[in-house]
Design goal:
By secondary structure, this protein is of the alpha/beta class. It contains ten helices and 13 strands.
């Protein structure tokens, strides 16, 4: 059987790198990683391509001959998108529209990694399923939703099957909270280094945290999926408050200092995503938050 060529755009990122590690274990896939540079630590078996996503010529060459593209690149994050919103709309959105056109021209499929944590905004009914009307409250979520709408329009008009994966709040090996996302990552590392954790608000903000390996397993199932569904929540279906994160960590280690600061306008109070749709095609397990957090803590301590 001929192997399928899969390109991860943003392959040096947290999700991209973990996904490459997961997919390269498959004998029927050739895995390619595309980013601005080739990382110092490469994953064995992955083919690395370096170049600028925003250079049309470079991008066209990178995707040539691929059977599947996974688009995980973003130049803004939820924290800075309200200041850098034009970068999101003027660069990320427009270049992704061009990418869609290039992929359609050569008959290549795509999975776009959207943000389940931000596109839905404030929702009364929880857990949130894919049919809920998205109303993002920050520009990061808005840019992601704009890209989603472009993809859906192409699918509708040209009968393409590009997919949208709305990922909740991933955490685990390879994350760096200094890049603007990752409350769990910040909490674990600050505890290990005996630093004070800052919480914006009262600590009762609830998120759907999911271990990165489980995210990658669900995305792998999407690569093999040939049905007609467009949008999938990639989530744990488990709501965990920031205070619960702190409580579980203190049981693991004993000490974590926390200070509470004024809540931020970019943060939604509660997001828990219904994962029943992805569960219909992904048959594997999903770690509970307590299991995943303990696993990540041990990984960091043994790696320190």
């Amino acid at each position: 059987m001929e192997s399928k060529k899969v390109l991860i755009i943003g392959g040096n990122g947290f999700i991209g790198r973990n996904l490459a590690k997961k997919l390269v274990m498959r004998k029927d896939l050739e895995v390619y990683s595309f980013d601005l540079s080739i990382p110092r630590e490469t994953v064995e078996g992955v083919e690395y391509l370096s170049g600028d996503f925003f250079d049309d010529h470079v991008l066209k060459n990178a995707i040539r001959g691929m059977d599947m593209v996974i688009h995980s690149l973003s130049t803004v994050n939820p924290g800075n998108s309200n200041e850098k919103y034009m970068q999101g709309y003027g660069r990320d959105l427009l270049q992704t529209v061009k990418l869609c056109g290039m992929l359609i021209d050569q008959g290549t499929n795509m999975i776009f990694l959207s943000s389940g944590g931000t596109v839905y905004g404030i929702q009364e009914n929880q857990p949130i399923n894919e049919l809920a009307l998205p109303v993002p409250i920050n520009h990061y979520g808005s840019v992601k939703l704009c890209i989603e709408n472009v993809i859906r329009t192409f699918n509708s008009q040209l009968h393409t099957k590009m997919r949208i994966a709305r990922i909740s709040n991933p955490y685990g090996p390879g994350q760096d909270y200094h890049k603007g996302v990752g409350f769990v990552d910040a909490a674990v590392k600050k505890m290990i280094h005996k630093e004070t954790l800052e919480i914006w608000g009262d600590g009762e903000t609830i998120r759907d945290y999911i271990y990165i390996e489980d995210v990658c397993s669900m995305l792998e199932a999407l690569i093999d999926y040939e049905g007609n569904e467009e949008v999938f929540n990639i989530s744990s279906n488990e709501g965990i408050s920031q205070n619960m994160v702190v409580e579980i960590l203190r049981k693991l280690n004993g000490g974590l200092d926390v200070i509470y600061k004024e809540a931020r306008s970019v943060d939604v109070k509660k997001i828990v995503l219904d994962n029943s749709k992805i569960r219909s095609i992904y048959q594997g397990g999903i770690r509970s938050f307590a299991e995943g957090l303990e696993q990540y803590y041990k990984f960091l301590v043994e790696g320190e």
